[in-house]
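Supplementary Methods S3. Complex input for the S-adenosylmethionine-bound model.
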Amino acid sequence: MLHFSEAAEKNKNHILLVLRDRLLPNAHVLEIGSGSGQHALYMASEMKTITWQPTERSEGMLDLTKNLSDYGSPNILAPLILDLSLEQWPSANTNCVYSANVIHIVNKNLGENLIRGAGNNLSEGGLLILYGPYKYDGDFTTPSNAEFDAWLKERDPHSGIRDFEWVADLANQQGLQLQDDLPMPANNQILIFQR
Ligand SMILES: C[S@@+](CC[C@H](N)C(=O)[O-])C[C@H]1O[C@@H](n2cnc3c(N)ncnc32)[C@H](O)[C@@H]1O
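Predicted complex, serialized as structure tokens:
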């Protein structure tokens, strides 16, 4: 496995339990920022009736493509280049836009593009599912998330744990309403918005 993520390995089953409960049996999931593809591989192998469309920016495509071809299942589509800094979303309507640990990595403009893209692509009843840490009323949920935020900003001053309210406002502007905010292990959340 190229570009293996320890975090993705640890969180994948917790995320599966939520997705399994929320996705339609024949859901088409568009993933943004698939990274190594560990989530795509695991979710698709555990939910055989869904279709999973992994995407990455071009820098990550070689590793992602290799991992998917080495370990993939038939319900994973060939990965597409989707860079949030470019307007290049696939035209197909999707039931679910899923993105884990991306919105605090990319800058706020690209975070907005992620939510706007979901708004443009989600079919009626479709879900935007965001996994990661968030701040509430301007506060980190834990000291370790504050440390994580400082670490992120040292790497890139434009990264940072986002405010839940900022995300929810942007989603609302796209006609996406908060359906659930679920606490997850390791001080993360799953935010679920529905069109
Ligand atoms: C922390 S990793 C998360 C990877 C994976 N989703 C996971 O949970 O293991 C952040 C991901 O965001 C992707 N990313 C960074 N900038 C991006 C951009 N402009 N457009 C799309 N993805 C981007 C990175 O390539 C990387 O795969």
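The chain has a mean pLDDT of 96. The CA atoms of residues 28 and 40 lie 12 Å apart.
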